[in-house]
Design a protein that fits this description.
A 4-stranded mixed sheet has the order 3-2-5-4. The chain is globular and about 35 Å long. By secondary structure, it is of the alpha/beta class. The model has no long low-confidence stretch (mean pLDDT 88). It contains 2 helices and 7 strands. The protein has a single domain, classed as Hypothetical Protein Aq_1857, Chain: A (Sandwich), CATH 2.60.300.12.
């Protein structure tokens, strides 16, 4: 089973976003537009699908992944980090000149 953690920089950005917008959640869809960028939404503004998998929480925010991405990454630990750039179009990290990025590490089975 994969897990999700966050770097100190990601936890700082989450706290900044929560201070501005209230509670948030993350969703890793693996869609064509945002690739390895997890999307950050206000809780209640994003409908989690019945097939989405909750991997855990980072900075108090639930982190979900689509079922198809979970199948591809289920033997991987996900590490949420922050890099310079623009966030996904609908993600709350957009416009902050830094964005979330998913890194991965193979789990021992």
């Amino acid at each position: 089973m994969s897990t999700v953690t966050a770097t100190p920089e990601a936890l700082e950005l989450i706290a900044e976003i929560v201070a501005d917008h209230g509670p948030v959640l993350f969703h890793q869809s693996g869609g064509c537009c945002d690739g390895s960028s997890p999307m950050c939404y206000p809780q209640g503004d994003f409908k989690v699908g019945e097939r989405d998998v909750k991997l855990g929480e980072i900075g108090g925010a639930p982190f979900f992944i689509s079922a198809s991405q979970y199948e591809a990454w289920k033997h991987t630990d996900l590490i949420i980090d922050v890099v310079p750039g623009r966030g996904g179009m609908f993600s709350l990290d957009n416009g902050r000149e830094k964005r979330f990025l998913t890194r991965s590490e193979i789990c021992s089975i």
